[in-house]
């Protein structure tokens, strides 16, 4: 238990009158804390602290589990969204490639027919 300054001064004066060695009196009074924060922790204090730490640990675990579940749900939603976007992109690329392939085929066939027509005309003219 902590001593107030008034109590500490009264004890010092009383003990100094009985004990001639002032240093011994001061040393003895130094064993009594001057403030509550200087008191030694008791087993009861440690038990309370331990139970508070256990409660805090449980609370932190619960919060971390909730956070982990929330992050998993968000990641699953993000993964699904990315898969859908990739599928749409892949389909768009497929359609564009198919359209471009058809355009090139029409151009190639048209060019070949034009060349064949010119060759037939040249051959007919040279006969």
Describe the protein's architecture and organization:
This protein has 127 residues and is mostly helical. The protein has a domain at 1-40. The protein is built from three helices and no strands. α1 packs antiparallel against α2 (22-29). The longest helix has 83 residues, at 43-125. The mean pLDDT is 90.
The secondary structure category is mainly alpha
Number of H/I helices? 3
Shape assignment: rod-shaped
Helix content: over 70%
Total number of beta strands: 0
Give the biggest sheet: none
Task: Give the SSE string.
Answer: HHH
Question: What value does the Rg take, in angstroms?
Answer: 47 Å
What's the short story on this structure?
This protein has a domain at 1-40.
Helices and strands in order:
Blueprint: H1 5-18, H2 22-29, H3 43-125
Helix pairs in contact: 1-2
Which descriptors would you attach to this protein?
mainly alpha; rod-shaped
């Amino acid at each position: 238990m902590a001593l107030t300054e008034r109590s500490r001064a009264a004890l010092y004066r009383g003990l100094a009158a009985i004990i001639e060695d002032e240093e011994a009196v001061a040393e003895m009074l130094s064993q009594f804390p001057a403030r509550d924060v200087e008191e030694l922790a008791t087993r009861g204090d440690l038990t309370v602290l331990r139970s508070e730490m256990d409660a805090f640990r449980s609370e932190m675990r619960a919060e971390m589990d909730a956070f982990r579940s929330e992050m998993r749900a968000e990641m699953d939603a993000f993964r699904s969204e990315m898969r859908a976007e990739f599928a749409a992109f892949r389909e768009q690329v497929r359609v564009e490639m198919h359209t471009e392939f058809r355009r090139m085929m029409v151009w190639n066939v048209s060019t070949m027919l034009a060349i064949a027509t010119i060759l037939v005309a040249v051959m007919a003219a040279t006969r």
